[in-house]
Amino acid sequence: MNKKIIGTVLIAILLVIGVVVYLNSPWNQSGSGSLPEGVKNGGKSILEVGAQEKGDRDVKTFNLTAQEKEWKISDGKSVNAWTYNGTVPGEPITVTEGDYVKVNLKNELDVPVTIHWHGVLLPNKMDGVPGLTQDAVQPGESFTYEFIANDAGTYWYHSHQQSSKQVDKGLYGPLVIEEKEKEYEKDEFFILDEWAVDQEKRDLSNMGGMMKGAMSGDGEADTKQMYDTFTVNGKSADAIEPLKMEKGEKARLRFVNAGYQVHKLVFPEGSMRVIASDGEKVVSEGNTSNVLEIAPGERFDVEFTKLNEETMFIGQEQNVKNAEDMVIPIVSGNNASKDKAVLASGKGVSKGISYGSENTIFKETPTPDVNYTMDLSMGMDMGEGMSFQINDKTFPDTPPIEVNEGDIVKVTLKNTGRMNHPMHLHGHRFQVNSKNGEEFDQPIVKDLIHVKPGEEYVIYFKAENPGEWLFHCHDNNHADRGMVTIVDYDGVYSPFELDGENGNQPN
Hints:
This protein is mainly β. The protein folds into three domains: 37-46 and 360-502, Cupredoxins -  blue copper proteins (Immunoglobulin-like); 52-182, Sandwich (Immunoglobulin-like), CATH 2.60.40; 213-357, Cupredoxins -  blue copper proteins (Immunoglobulin-like, Sandwich). Helix content is 10%, strand content 38%. The chain is built from six helices and 33 strands. The chain has helices at residues 3-24, 37-40, 163-166, 207-216, 221-224, 476-480; strands at 44-45, 59-74, 77-84, 93-96, 100-107, 116-118, 142-148, 153-158, 172-178, 187-195, 229-232, 243-244, 250-257, 263-266, 272-277, 280-283, 291-294, 299-305, 312-316, 327-331, 356-357, 370-381, 385-390, 401-403, 408-415, 421-425, 430-435, 438-446, 448-451, 456-462, 468-473, 484-489, 492-493. Strands 11-10-13-18-15-16-21 form a seven-stranded mixed β-sheet, with no helix packed on it. Helix 1 packs across helix 4. The longest helix is centred in the first third of the chain and has 22 residues, at 3-24. Homotrimer. Keywords: Capsid protein, Cell cycle, Cell division, Copper, FAD, Flavoprotein, Membrane, Metal-binding, Nitrate assimilation, Oxidoreductase, Periplasm, Repeat, Transmembrane, Transmembrane helix, Virion. One of its GO terms (molecular function) is copper ion binding. It is found in: Periplasm. Pathway: Nitrogen metabolism; nitrate reduction (denitrification); dinitrogen from nitrate: step 2/4.
């Protein structure tokens, strides 16, 4: 059988598989429709719960303007970006735990926007989710976010309006809540991302391409075909600003993945120690790996030591396309050369579940009041291509997690599809107790868990922040195509609506 015939047969098989999936999946159009009844009706409005008073706290005020900007990524590479205050990432927001934070958002774009405070525990009405916690901020209008910075840690902010497009175009920035007594004098923030610079961004409507990727066994084959350039803090390759440190100096390096592709950063052996994951301190003794795997939406804090006076490098593991774009030089003195960038060899991989948290939510495995199984799968939408489902439904028709205040909630996440799904819970932190049926000796507390194909995690959280909260995939392309649900508190409701005259699109 010649190659042409084999190719024809393979295409036919893929088409048949696609039709079967389509015919057997209870698909729904994502991004339209109304919220579930419980979210819309009954009890108090979310605008009336979780109030926080300024009191005698220090007030830190910031002004962020959403605006369009031609952004230079590197020599010869520029993108038309949407920015907060004209830069990618947006203006850094640094406050101290206990501060009262006020952020005035002004929208100078020609589309609605919001700001979501990723990982921050705050009142539901300040969460920045259009159609659920507020109306999207219209062009020419403003909105003020106010909350208490109660929990020291690494966070970030980004638009949650049509986020698969708006975050992709640069609407994000760093947020640090510092401890009252800083542990490290040198403290740096790095946001990782991917861009389509030399190509049009591909989408998920190409059924043949998606099916081919799904069958390849690569959990992010869909994402890899979309982008051609990696960035660190909005810059790529030689345009990445070197980190200046002297021999023996220690620094806290904060990493956030704002993109949709997993990034594995290789550190010089013996130079790094993970100290926090998703804003929670971790126990890292005995872990000697020097590769840090960061899922989309995930955050890690690392204690980094400059081991010698030579230029050292932290960079993307070099076994993926575009890896050379994502290399950070660490230089001493005036030596800022990156001409001979050589990464260390990888030794082990640290990831979100590699560590236990110093402070857990539950000392023992709790007895849940609510059990919810979250089946993460794939399907087809008529005319839309691939969909990403929770329990065979796409948002807003996904079954909500219905809770009462004070409930202990057990969620079992199962990835029965073929793509990676970094699942992020708003307004809460959860405790990861087991993977694939095996309990962890040291549970870890997070707000995002990366669930790869075939994996199953059991998490627990306490329902102690009333409101209507998203639980969604932070590959926002997957969220845009349906992988979103809501933690729905009994006795409260959202007065907002999806779409409508404000064009609210939370995914």
